[in-house]
Amino acid sequence: LSNNNPYASFGATLARDEEQNLWSTPHDVTHTEADDDRVLYNMIVVRNQLDKDSEEWQKLNYDIYTLRQTRKEVRSRWKHILEDLGFQKEADSLLSVTKLSIISDSQNMSKARDILLKLSEETNIFPTSWELSERYLFVVDRLIALDAADEFFQMASAVYPKRPGGDRADEGPRP
């Protein structure tokens, strides 16, 4: 291959982009680097250093897949509630968090943390093993700015109620 060919490494670039994408799909504009991103990235790095036929590689590959699927499911739950609240066209942009995202009002920070913690403790919108993601702090801040945070919490409580016995949220919404 010639070094003058701009398409020579196209496949390699796509594969690298897929591996570097830590949330769900290549070129995910909502990507931000947070603690949970670094955990996933480190898992990918370790997996890529292992022999693909090894048991360790298979286990890490499964863990990476599971973590990505869990993130997709949580995002889907948030999007579902936002759409039910009337934010059909805005749901994706409300969930979009990048390195350029800022908290709209520093006074909202403690309220956003409280609501996020309350969502975690009193609903099953997050799986039981989920570590709270900074990403959703930005989303709650946006909901506070739109005066929709309380309605979001009420809807999350209705759709994903906390069940006795520690039932998991990934069982889906209650009818």
From TrEMBL:
A GO-annotated cellular component: melanosome
Lineage top rank: taxon:
Eukaryota
Q: Which InterPro entries match?
A: Melanoregulin
| BP terms from Gene Ontology | melanocyte differentiation; melanosome transport
Coiled-coil intervals, chain numbering: none
Question: Pfam families under this entry?
Answer: MREG (PF15812)
- Protein's name in the database: MREG protein
